[in-house]
Design a protein that fits this description.
single chain; 29 helices; 695 residues; five-stranded antiparallel sheet; 45% helix; alpha+beta
């Protein structure tokens, strides 16, 4: 069955907008926590003699206007009319917030305080906004919308917490006549909708009646398609293009033509909405064939910029073949000064979003070409849009470097050949047919095919250069995953480690674990990709497994001993210290303290501090810090140093270590070392102890 949008011509005249005349509705509510307003009012000296209160009021106003040090209790006698006087006297906003003048005024006078708050807004915008956030009123919405250009944005900020009331204030303009007022109102309504406040807008519409509800639906409908079908460019030979299918059946010619016509309107929202609705009903393979064919014809026609819709179609319909077709041209376009075309193509590659696409873009971020910054920015946008962490994106962007499924590469000299192996640092070496190992390919001799040998040498140089750039970063990333306790589900583990052509070489040298498994729960990966336990027995991953790189502190001394023996028996050198890692623990005294001086007075070589940059430490002039808590208990560790690192200069001086202390931004007592997870405490102490190593 054909998708409805392709079954008949979608080119119809646009629906004419109905202008609805609405009388603005009003709403006023002040939000107080339980007992908050009563506590504010109780702090005001309202029961004193009127004359005495007037005298105190005059003294207070004079004190504020004079500036200087003011007692913290001062400000309880001021009246509403005093606030504009203080604003005109250039009283700083810090004084206003410190003495809580505006919240007290709101507590005492309620809605009667609104005009005064609006009057002093220009002088104290941040302080007034702090109070306006607790006011859910259409009058506040009207005031914020009326502010001049230098205060643009305050209404949008307020509206995020008062979406329905904001919509009540916006809908009369949004549904009214065309003009600047309508455009501004629509912009904010779209922002609210984007932030997930569609229901609040609909609730406000219901308050205005059925006519408003009907027009709100039309407001946010996709823009209409043009009334006439767009022309298809000459380089697109409709008859020669691959057929797109739905449930295996080729689309009729008319439907195929409509799909192409819709594609020529990309990335316009009107076309994107329709194409998005069609795609689930069409077969992905033939769609990718179409995208690749369109790209090749566009490139053959010298890639006309006015037909850039082909790139958007490739991003929407294409697969890794489209990625490779575009990547092959990116460098050429960039070097030819066609930066706009190259950037559009780069965005199309990222939009395809496959691991191959992201891998190619990641490679560009490590290159020296003109697309380096654009590639990094495109990856950041993709990561934020997909809701991925930096490490999750890194999983997907590790290149395979042309290695085969077994993680090897063959270098063919003709009569003889070699293959690549990788050591614990992910550095390649050469293995001949007898298993002998060498650090580089041998020189060609007279018996070798000169062309094949030259290609093999070039391939070897490229492999060494690319692994050199990758190795240290990947090893650090895996060590960071172990320390942080990051886990992968079974498909991700198999995809990014067990079968990944490059990462399998590192993964085989590590000990892995399965969360919550019964019986044996740690395993390693053998050369043939099978799994085995610390008893060297076969291991099968359970269903629903969450897999992690095991921190040795999670193992008993007995299990660590078995793994140490097994790794030694197989001559496995780990890429970083895992099973043989130094383990640390807080002393009983430290467990109850927020500061330790166990390293105080020790001298650390200045150059040693560079090693901590990759372990999450941040540097200031005299101290360095690291986050060691979690979301439930954010904790910051700080290490004092003398004479100070000066933001880790190129040649930092040797440092005398001081106290290591813990702090937090949350209220309550300072955290202690006993509050830290044992692994976090061990790694923190290990970091500092590592500064004292001499090699």
């Amino acid at each position: 069955m054909l998708p409805r949008a392709l079954a008949a011509d979608p080119w119809v005249p646009a629906r004419k907008r109905v202008v609805v005349s609405l009388t603005p509705l009003e709403r006023t509510e002040i939000r107080w926590a339980a007992g908050e307003r009563e506590a504010c009012v109780a702090s005001l000296p309202l029961r004193e003699d009127a004359a005495q209160r007037a005298l105190r009021r005059a003294e207070e106003r004079a004190m504020f206007l004079r500036g200087g040090i003011i007692p913290i209790h001062t400000g309880r006698y001021l009246e509403l009319e005093d606030l504009p006087v203080l604003a005109q006297g250039n009283l700083g906003g810090a004084f206003v917030s410190h003495h809580d003048l505006l919240r007290l005024a709101l507590a005492r006078h309620g809605a009667a305080a609104f005009p005064t708050l609006f009057e002093v807004f220009a002088t104290w915008p941040r302080e007034v906004m702090a109070v306006l956030h607790r006011i859910d009123a259409t009058s506040v919405a009207a005031f914020l919308r009326s502010l001049p250009g230098n205060f643009v944005g305050y209404f949008d900020i307020w509206a995020r917490g008062h979406a329905e009331t904001a919509a009540l204030a916006l809908l009369p303009a949004a549904l009214g006549p065309d003009g600047e007022a309508r455009n501004t109102a629509m912009k904010t309504l779209r922002l609210l909708r984007k932030n997930g406040d569609q229901q609040a807008i609909e609730a406000a519409g219901k308050a205005y009646g059925d006519a408003a509800v009907a027009e709100i639906e039309a407001l946010f409908a996709p823009p209409p398609l043009p009334p006439k079908a767009p022309k298809i460019p000459a380089f697109v030979d409709v008859e020669a293009l691959p057929s797109v299918t739905a449930s295996g059946e080729p689309l009729p010619r008319e439907a195929m033509l409509r799909l192409l016509q819709l594609s020529t309107l990309l990335p316009q929202e009107c076309a994107r909405a329709v194409v998005d609705s069609i795609l689930p009903e069409l077969d992905r393979g033939p769609l990718a064939d179409l995208a690749e064919a369109l790209l090749r014809r566009w490139i053959a026609a010298e890639a006309p910029t006015k037909e850039k819709w082909v790139l958007y179609a490739a991003a929407l319909l294409g697969d890794d073949r489209a990625v490779r077709a575009l990547v092959a041209r990116l460098g050429e376009w960039s070097e030819a000064g066609l930066a706009a075309r190259a950037k559009l193509a780069l965005d199309a590659v990222v939009s395809i979003g496959s691991d191959v696409a992201l891998m190619h873009v990641s490679f560009l971020t490590r290159s020296k070409g003109g697309l380096k910054k654009a590639a990094a920015a495109a990856l950041d946008r993709y990561r934020e849009g997909a809701g991925l962490s930096e490490d999750e994106l890194a999983d997907r962007t590790v290149p395979d470097l042309g290695l085969d499924a077994r993680g090897t590469m063959r270098f063919d000299y003709g009569p003889r050949s070699y293959r690549a192996g990788f050591d614990q640092d992910l550095q390649p070496y050469v293995v001949d047919h007898e298993g002998a190992r060498a650090s580089a390919l041998p020189r060609p001799n007279k018996a070798d095919d000169p062309e094949k040998a030259a290609r093999a040498q070039e391939l070897w140089r490229a492999l060494k250069a690319e692994t050199k750039a990758l190795a240290a970063a990947e090893v650090r990333r895996l060590e960071r995953a172990m320390v942080r306790g990051r886990t992968w589900d079974r498909p991700a583990f198999e995809r990014y480690f067990l079968t990944h052509p490059l990462m399998q070489h590192l993964a085989r040298r590590l000990v892995w674990g399965v969360d919550g498994a019964h019986g044996p729960w740690t395993f390693r990966i053998a050369e043939d990709a099978t799994l085995s336990t610390d008893q060297d027995e076969p291991y099968q991953l359970p269903e629903g497994a969450r897999i992690r790189i095991v921190h040795p502190l999670a193992l008993t001394a007995e299990v660590r001993g078995r793994w140490s023996t097994l790794l030694a028996d197989y001559r496995i050198i780990q890429p970083f210290e895992q099973i043989g890692r130094e383990l640390f623990a807080a002393t009983p005294e430290e467990r109850g303290a927020s500061t330790t001086e166990r390293w105080k007075g020790r001298i650390a070589l200045g150059e040693r501090f560079f090693s901590l940059k990759h372990r999450g430490w941040r540097f200031a002039d005299y101290d360095m810090g690291k986050s060691v808590g979690d979301e439930s208990l954010p904790i910051e560790a700080t290490l004092r140093t003398e004479p100070g690192l000066q933001f880790l200069a190129g040649k930092p001086e040797d440092q005398t270590l001081g106290a290591l202390s813990l702090g937090t931004s949350t209220e309550g007592a300072a955290p202690t070392f006993g509050d830290l997870h044992p692994i976090a405490a061990s790694e923190l102490f290990r970091d500092v102890d590592a500064l004292l190593r001499q090699s």
